[in-house]
Amino acid sequence: MNSIVVSGIGVITAIGNTIAENIHALENGKTGIINRAAKNQNDKTIQFPLGKIDLTNEELIAQCEGYDPTGTTRTDALSKVAFQDAIRDAGLTASELKSPRTAFISASTVGGMSRTMELYEDATTNDIPSEFINSYSASVHLHKIVNYYNMTGPTSVINTACSSSANAIMLGAKMLEQDKVDIAIVGGVDCISRFTIRGFDALGILTKNRCKPFDINREGLNLGEAASYLVLRKSTQSRSQNKYGSIVGWANTNDSFHSSALNEDGSGIMNCINKAIQIAKISTDDIGFINAHGTGTVNNDLAELTAVSKLFKPGTPIYSSKSYTGHTLGAAGAIECVFSLIGLNKGQVYPSLNVEKPLKVKSLQVNQVLLESKDVKYALSNSFGFNGNCTSLIIAKKE
Amino acid sequence: MKVVASYIVSPQETHIDDVENKEIELRNCSTNSLEVIEPSWRDYIPMNQLRRMGKAVRIGTGAGLKLIKKHPKFENSDAIILTTSNGGLEDCIKFLKQIVFFGEGALTPTNFVQSTPNAIAGNIAMATSNQAYNMTHVNGSFSFADGLRDAGFFINDQPEAKILLGSVEEISDYNYRINELRGDYKTEKINSLDLISSNTKGTICGEGAAFFGLSNNEDGIEIIDAATLLSAEPNQIKKFINGFLSENKIEPKEIDTLMLGYNGDVSNREMYDYAKDALIPESNVFTFKELFGEHPSVISMGFWYATMLQKGMSPYREPLRDANKKIDTVLIFNQYNRNENSLVLIKK
Lengths: 399, 348
Prior knowledge:
The structure holds two protein chains of two kinds. Chain A is α/β, with parallel strands linked by helices. Chain A has helices at 19-27, 36-39, 57-62, 74-90, 94-98, 116-124, 140-148, 164-177, 194-202, 267-280, 298-311, 322-325, 332-346, and strands at residues 4-12, 50-51, 102-107, 155-158, 183-190, 223-224, 226-234, 246-254, 287-291, 318-319, 348-349, 360-361, 364-365, 371-372, 378-384, 389-396. Chain A has a single domain (4-396), classed as Peroxisomal Thiolase, Chain A, domain 1 (3-Layer(aba) Sandwich). Chain A contains 13 helices and 16 strands. In chain A, strands 4-3-5-7-1-8-16-15-9-10 form a ten-stranded mixed beta sheet. In chain A, strands 2-6 form a two-stranded parallel sheet. In chain A, a hairpin with a 2-residue loop joins strand 12 (360-361) and strand 13. Chain B has two domains: 2-215, Peroxisomal Thiolase, Chain A, domain 1 (3-Layer(aba) Sandwich), CATH 3.40.47.10; 221-347, Peroxisomal Thiolase, Chain A, domain 1 (3-Layer(aba) Sandwich). In chain B, helix 8 crosses helix 9. The mean pLDDT of chain B is 95. At the A-B interface, helix 6, helix 7, strand 4, helix 8 and helix 9 of A face helix 3, helix 5, strand 4, helix 6 and helix 7 of B.
C-alpha cells in the first residue's frame, strides 16, 4: 500500500483560524456560514450567505511574516497564514524548506482575481497601474511564498476548478511515491470575491439560504473561503513524522459529460472512486465514512449519492462539511482531507447540517448526527469540478 | 518519454500539414503584437460551441482536437494535461464587464465557465468521450515544465500510457493592457523579426497553442528532464543550470544546441549570455521569440521548434550562432518576468 504520511497541517476556514478551532466547530455542529444579507441590506453584492473568515485583509496580512502589504491580496495572505501554520506544525527547518527535494504544490481558482474591480480597471481604464497590477495571476500566492522561504524544489499551481487542491495532494503524493522529493507541501487557497459570487449566481446555483447538502429540497450552494496546506512525507521515514495519518489512494478522472454538471447516473464518479480504491489496495467495505463533495446543488448531490450508493455497503456514513464552511472552491479538497483526518483520528463522523428531508438513494442517506466509532480506519474524500474534473482521495487514520 | 506527435498554432504558418518538410513565409509585425494564425476549426468543433468560445479556449480545444484527428491513437489518451498561465482571460474580463454594467441583473454564465482555465482540457475530454486523467497547471511561465514533469510522473506509473500535453496563451486587449501597464512591452514599434537584436527595454507579445502526443513506445524526440527555479539572482540561476546538467549526468559540451528565450529586452540578456558564451560556448544557438512573441507559455513553442529542428526541419531563420553541429541534444532555457527560469533537456 502507498503510504504518504501527513506530518503537519495548517488550516484556516470560516469555522476556525486553527486546527483546534476547526475541530471544535465540527464536534459541535457549528457552521461558519453567515447570512450577511440580513445584516446589510444595502450591499447587494453580498445578498448570499457566505462562509467568510472573520478577519479583515489588514488583520490577515499582519499575520504574514515578512509580507509587504502593498499588492498583497486576500488570497496571498490566506495562503501564507495556512502555510506558516503547516510548516511550524511539521517542524520544518529553513534548510528543509530551501532544499531542492522539497516540493510545493498549491491550487487556486480565483487567485489574485479576488481584487475583481482593480483587475477590471487595470485591464480597461487605468493609465496608472493599481497596486495589484502584479497580483492577479493564479500563481502569485505561491511565488510569494517560494520567494520568502527561498524554496528551490519543484512547484505547481493547479486549477481544475473545485477539485484543484485534491489534485495538488495527489500530485505531491505521487512525487513522494516516485522518490522525486522528500517533502511535499500541498494544498490550496481561495477567497470570496465578486467574481465567483456573480459567476455562481449566473449559473443559478447559489442559494439565499444556508445550503443543505443531500436534502430533498436542497436549493444550491454557499460560497466560502479557506486555505489549507499539508506537509507530506514518505512513510519509510521516521514514524514520529506520522502525526495525522496518511494518504493511501488517489484518482483523477474526467466525467466527460457537461461543462457545469455531472452525469446523474453516477458513472463518472464511480470510475474515479474505483480507481482510488484500487490504488489504496482496499475494498469499498473498508471505507468508514465519506466526506462528500456535497455542494448542495440539485445535480451534484444526486449524481454523488447515486454513485456511492452503487459502490458502498448500506449504512456507510456520508456527510458534507460544506454545510460548515461553504464551498471553498480551490481550497475545498485540502480542507476536506484535513477534516477527514481529524474525523478518523477522533473516531468521529460529523453530521451534515441543515438537512430536513434527507435524499435517499437505495439505502444510502446523509449522516445527520455525530457518530462515534473507533473502528473506522479509512475515509473517502471526493472533489468534483466544472468541466468534468473528478478527484477522489483515500485517507487512512494514524496507526 | 518521447514526443511522438505535435500540432501547433502560432503567429507563424505552423498549422500547415507536413510542416517539417515545407518552407513557410515568415510573418512579421510592426504592432508589437504577434497574433495567432488560426485555421478553420469547423471540422473539429461544432459551430454552436465555436461561436461561444473565447480565443484561448478556441485555439486550445481546436489544436488539441486537431492533433487527435491527425494522430487518432491519442483519441483515447491516458492523460490530458493542459498548461497555461491565464487561460481565457478575455472571457474573464468580459464577465467582469457584465458585473460592472449589469451589477444586479441576470448575468449570462458562458463567459464565467469559459474563463476557468480547465475548460480547455475539459472540452477536449468531452469532445472525445475521454474519462482519463485530466489536469490543468496554472503556474505562470512554469506551467509547461510542470506539465512535462506531470506527464513524466504519469508515465512512470503507467509505462504504456499515451499522453496529450497542451500549452495555451491568448492576447486579449485586456491582458495586453495589463502587461503594457507593467511596462513589459517596448514603447517604440519594431519589426518583430528584428526583436532579438533590439537594444531597448521591453518585448513584444504573442499567443498560440502547442500540443504534443507523448509516449514511451515509439520513435520520437526524448524528453530527458524539465526543471524550474524562481530567482532573479544570477549566481543562483547559474547554480540551477549547472545542477540541472549534472543531475542529468551531462557535460555542458555534450549540449550541441541551445534554444534560448532572448526576448529583445536589453535588460534581460545576462543569463542567456551566460549560457551562450560562458557555459556552452561551442553550441549552435537558436532563438524563438522573434517568431512567436513573448508570453508565459511560449516556451512550449521553443520546445516545438527544437523538436522540429532535431527532426531535420530547416531552421526558419539563421541561428544566432552556427557551430556547425548536428542538432541532437538541445537545452531549452527560458526566463519570464526576469525571475521565472525554466529548463528543458531533449535528445534525438
